[in-house]
Design a protein that fits this description.
The chain is mainly α. Helix content is 77%, strand content 0%. It contains 17 helices and no strands. The chain has helices at residues 10-36, 38-49, 53-81, 84-104, 109-137, 142-149, 152-171, 175-193, 225-229, 232-261, 271-301, 303-323, 330-359, 364-379, 382-391, 395-414, 428-433. The longest helix is centred in the middle third of the chain and has 31 residues, at 271-301. It is globular, with a radius of gyration of 21 Å. It starts with 9 loop residues before the first helix and ends with a helix. The model has no long low-confidence stretch (mean pLDDT 89). One of its GO terms (cellular component) is plasma membrane. It holds the Pfam family MFS_1.
Length: 434
């Protein structure tokens, strides 16, 4: 079988480049509007309006609870109608939610709550849409392409948080109007540059000149909740990646709060702004290639081995915050920043990769909608978990609990070692055997 090189097909290459650019923006905004902006919004509302942690984040917690069902609803709509018909209006309404946060001006709590809720729930189709488009368009190159587009998450850590901090410092909540405008541009790019599947424009996945060898005639059949609940592979995915999602939600939402709690009078205005943000930019920049590296490992060696590497990289983010001293530590902050980049870039890369690995390209979303729905149940309580420990003055304990959870996820992934790749015949290691 002749080796498929993606960019040999110029038509496919054009769509591919467009998707990688827009997909990177999906992950940039997803990371920023799901978790990261809370690191700026929380201290701003605390210092200017006296709001406490739970008052600020309760709309996000409620939104996270709603996403438990929304993963199923959005996944089902994607399967039935395609990605673009659902994703476009979602981006537009999310932009309106950002405008609502700005108009609330820290005074109208009802408007603030509704708007923040809208933003939280509508980042779900942004992430799921990018994942499904990647699964539709790529098999052999799936890991590496996802590695490119999910670099948008650590890119948010490198430049996005600093940009948000500067905008909120300069414009207050009106900074969210600027974000709304950027989302409008993203909606336009989605409308004109993205297609749901390669088959829609007369192409095949990876730019090949033939249909995938690994897809049987019955591929793409509906997967029921009963099938998921009785499938050991599904539970292995739910437990392992459910833990990773809980950890990343907890970590990203409270990293600024953690550093602020460790500030000394010499840290002006606080430890996060005076020291940690610098290391976040440096460390995250060095970690951005890890999104691609994990994708490369996935393409070359398979999703299970790449998932084990990802689990280990999470430790680089969690351990430093667990043992960080008052006033900070340069070495620990550098390690933490690198770990954050690996975590934020690696998880979005590997979640669709490992689900596609287990269930195949055409069954990816049919299975993923159930898996992500179940995973969203514990993830919905990540903010509350951190908030409770923070208000008790026991935030350090929370980080040690996260480390125990990561040990459980590592062992769970190990139990998946012998699961075969559903699309092995079209993957690079499968082609080498043919």
């Amino acid at each position: 079988m002749r080796r498929v090189i993606m960019f040999e097909n110029r038509k496919f290459a054009g769509y591919s480049i467009a998707f990688m650019f827009v997909g990177l923006l999906y992950n940039f905004f997803y990371s920023g509007l799901q978790n990261d902006h809370l690191n700026i919004l929380t201290p701003f509302l605390q210092s200017n309006y006296g709001w406490d942690d739970l008052k600020i984040t309760n709309p996000v917690t409620v939104g996270a609870l709603v996403t438990i069902i929304l993963y199923l609803v959005i996944g089902s709509l994607f399967v039935k109608y395609g990605v673009k018909k659902i994703l476009l209006p979602s981006i537009v309404v999310m932009a309106l939610g950002c405008v609502g946060i700005a108009l609330s001006a820290g005074q109208n709590y009802l408007l603030y709550s509704i708007s923040l809720f809208i933003v939280r729930v509508l980042v779900v189709p942004l992430q799921m849409g990018g994942f499904m488009l990647a699964a539709n368009w790529y098999i052999k190159y799936r890991g590496r392409v996802l590695g490119v587009i999910t670099a948008g998450s650590p890119l948010m850590s490198v430049v996005g948080i600093r940009m948000l901090t500067s905008m909120v410092a300069g414009y207050g909540l009106n900074a969210y109007v600027i974000i709304a405008g950027a989302l409008g541009v993203l909606a336009a790019l989605t409308a004109f540059a993205i297609k749901d599947t390669p088959e829609e424009v007369g192409l095949f996945p990876d730019g090949a000149d033939h249909a995938p060898l690994s897809e049987s005639e019955d591929a793409g059949q509906p997967i029921t909740l009963k099938q998921i609940l009785t499938d050991a592979r599904a539970w292995q995915l739910i437990i392992s990646y459910g833990i990773l999602q809980f950890v990343i939600m907890a970590m990203m939402s409270y990293m600024a709060v953690r550093y602020i709690s460790l500030s000394t009078p010499q840290d002006v205005p606080n430890l996060f702004v005076s020291k940690a943000m610098f290391w976040l930019s440096i460390g995250a920049a060095s970690g951005i290639p890890m999104s691609y590296v994990l994708g490369w490992i996935d393409d070359k060696l398979g999703s299970i081995k790449a998932s084990l590497v990802l689990n280990i990289l999470f430790l680089f983010a969690v351990i430093p915050l667990a043992i960080m001293p008052v006033g900070g530590n340069t070495t620990l902050m550098a390690i933490w920043a690198f770990g954050v980049a690996c975590m934020t870039g690696g998880l979005p890369t590997m979640h669709p990769c490992v689900t596609s690995y287990v269930y195949g390209r055409k069954n990816y979303m049919a299975a993923n909608r159930w898996i992500m729905t179940i995973q969203a149940i514990p993830m919905a309580f990540a903010l509350t978990f951190m908030g409770i420990f923070n208000q008790m003055g026991k935030l350090t304990t929370a980080y040690y609990i996260l480390l125990v959870m990561l040990a459980i996820s590592f062992v769970t992934i190990l139990t998946m070692w012998n699961i075969p790749d559903a699309n092995a015949a079209d993957r690079e290691y499968g082609l080498q055997r043919n």
